Amino acid sequence: MVMGTTTLLRIEEVHKTFGGIVALDQFTATVNEDEITGLIGPNGAGKTTLFNVITGVLTPDSGSIRFEGKELTSLKSHQICHEGIGRTFQTPKPVRSLTVRENLQVARKYGVGDNEKRETIQSINEVIELFSLEEKQDTITKELQLVEQKFVDVARALVTGPKLILLDEIMAGLNPTEKQEMMSTIKTINTEFGSTFLIIEHDLGIIRSISDRIITIHEGSELTSGSPEKVMENDKVREAYIGK
Ligand SMILES: Nc1ncnc2c1ncn2[C@@H]1O[C@H](COP(=O)(O)OP(=O)(O)OP(=O)(O)O)[C@@H](O)[C@H]1O
Ligand SMILES: [Mg+2]
């Protein structure tokens, strides 16, 4: 989408430790409205922890996370979802015993809050159509293939009308055709539904082609951020990857 200039999410000096492990080390970064931002970094760099502190799954030890200017760090997960942040998990987390349509209904009921009139909200039917899940809408989710479960996970986030969607390794385990399908769906949501994305992805080819901007994280801190071209040429980024 068009390069945005408004900051939607501002993360400032966020620190998160687990016992002696520093998962996020005074991490600072911003996500611009309307853009697709890629988040890359080696295993254990702190990417999933960052998603967890943004979405209230974990409370940071210190630091500030502001979404449209509003501080999130004292809010609970459902309140953060009501503010307009949706996410998926590294392992898909649909309610396995419910059908696809029921999963979307539950997500809608509990995820929208009092933001019913949000511009980005789509009907459940529109979302089912977008993900080509028409024929699977009455299937129990645990019977779906991995790619379909991943689509349901994104769809569950989408029916809450998020302004910002966080995707944690949504392409992992998919074959090249499925990856292309997922990428084009993400682009459609970005351009037509107006959602901003922050995407964790290990496949540098994918992240390079999908991202307007890339943030790199290493040992809990931002290494660098900027255009895909600029970030991929950065010596510190190359070292962190070759060092892996
Ligand atoms: N709940 C937890 N308890 C203890 N340590 C944790 C916990 N969650 C994460 N960590 C540690 O924090 C660090 C960052 O982990 P995190 O899962 O955020 O990395 P990641 O960048 O998502 O890695 P990957 O690419 O492998 O998914 C790692 O050292 C990890 O072992
Ligand atoms: Mg992770």
From TrEMBL:
Coiled coil: none annotated. The keyword tRNA-binding does not apply. Keywords: ATP-binding, Nucleotide-binding, Transport. One of its GO terms (cellular component) is plasma membrane. One of its GO terms (molecular function) is ATP binding. InterPro entries: AAA+_ATPase (IPR003593), ABC_AA/LPS_Transport (IPR051120), ABC_transporter-like_ATP-bd (IPR003439), P-loop_NTPase (IPR027417). SUPFAM superfamilies: P-loop containing nucleoside triphosphate hydrolases (SSF52540). Residues 9-244 form the ABC transporter domain. It holds the Pfam family ABC_tran. It comes from the Archaea. This is ABC transporter ATP-binding protein.
